C-alpha cells in the first residue's frame, strides 16, 4: 500500500505535467485545447491567467477579462496579471477600468515608468490631457531614456508653441536613438513650424527613407521645397500627396502654382482646373491663380475673366484684387479709356493702401486726359 506522501508527490508531479502540457499548447497557438487543459485546475492563479490569455488570443475579450479577474481574486499580489488586464481594458475601450488598475499598480510600484506612461495614454484617451501630461512627465523623470514618454512631452511642447523645450526633447530622443521615426518626424515638423524650410528638408527626406509616407508628410515636404524654389521636387511630392488624398483640391492648386513658377502654363492650367472641379465652396485662390497663368502668357482677356470670377468669390474691400483687375483691363481695353477709367475708380474705392491709391490716381489722371483729348 502506497504511503500518503507518495500519493501527494504523484499528484504534484501530475499537476506540473498537466500545466506544462497546457503551456505548450498555448505556446503553439492551440488556444482552445489550452483552455480545456488549464481549466482542469481552476484554483491556480497561473491557470486562470493563461486561460485569460488564451481567450484574448481568440479575441473573446469578455471571457478573457472574466478569467483575469478570477486570477486576481486568487492572488492579488501578482502584478503581471493586473498589468495584462489593464492593457486589455484599454484595448477594449474600458478606459476608466484601465485607469483604475493602473493606479493600483502604481501604488505598489510607483517607480515603474511604463505604468505611469500607460496611465497617461489612458487619460489622453478620455480627453484629460492635463493628467496625461503629468503622467508622461513622471515617466520621463523616472527614466529619461523612456522615448515614448519624452515623445509625448515633445509633441505637446510643439503643439503649444514651446519650441525651445520641444527641440531640447527631440535632441535628447535622437541622441538615445538616432533612427527613431517619431523623433525624426517631430524634428521635420519642428523646422516646418518655425519656417526653417532649409533645415526641414533633410529631415523629411530621412523620414521618407524610413516610412511609407502619408498625405500630410508629402504636403509639408512639398511646401518646404516650394519655399526653397525647388519647384520640380515640390510638384513630385504634391503628386505623391494626391495618391493618398485624391479628392483634396489643394495639392492640385499648389502643383498649378509650381508649374506657373516653371513657366509651364499648359500644366499649370490643367492642375488649377482640376482643383476647381474638386472644390465645392470658394474658388477664389484657383481663379486668381488661373488669372496669373494667363496674364504671364499675355492672354489678358482670359486673365481678366478669371480675375472677375475671383472678385465674385471674394469681393472684400481692401484686397489688391481690384487693382489687378484694373491693370489687366487696361491691357484689354486699350482703345476704350472710359471703360478702363471705371475699373481704376472702382479699384481705388476698394483699396486701403494709400500708396496704391496715389499710384492709381496718376493713371486715372492720364485716362481722363485721354478722354478729353478724344472728345476734342
Automatic annotation (TrEMBL):
Assigned keywords, A-Z: TPR repeat
TPR repeat ranges, renumbered to this chain: 79-112, 113-146, 249-282, 284-317
Positions of transmembrane segments: none
Signal peptide: none
SMART domains assigned to the protein according to its UniProt record, in alphabetical order: TPR
Domain of life: Bacteria
Name of this protein: Anaphase-promoting complex, cyclosome, subunit 3
Lineage: Bacteria, Pseudomonadati, Bacteroidota, Flavobacteriia, Flavobacteriales
